[in-house]
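Feature request disguised as a bug: please show the residue count (142) next to DUF1311 domain-containing protein in the output. Example input:
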Amino acid sequence: MLYKKIKLMIVIMMSIVPLPLFSQASTVEESTIAFCLNEGPVSAIAGCFTALELKRNVDYNRTYQTFINEIIKNKNNFLNYNGFLQKTKKAKGYFDKYMQSECQAWADQVIIDSPAWHTLYSQCMIRFYEQRINFYNKYDFQ
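Example output, currently without the count:
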């Protein structure tokens, strides 16, 4: 019974509590979130979201490195190459700290370090990673 109450609470919170900066998640992400929510016990749901968060983190950092490599490869196309590269790296550091703080604050609506907290935190991080991956992939260097 407790499992059903917590699962219901997570579903309700996800539907009524707006995630910062997001209007819609991608189709792939939605199906993955739905998959995680149907995992079973709350601890399994939290574990699924944590695993997905770690995967998205790898994707995010890989996409960022590809972005940096693209800047380096096209060095001659920048009027202020060193400044752009330095500020881009600095921005990633700030963004990483921002999304961690934002997601911790969002997850703090429930008991800290509970499976529900980890689920909310991971879901928030997944969406931030997705947003930033899209940013790097669609960046127009023109």
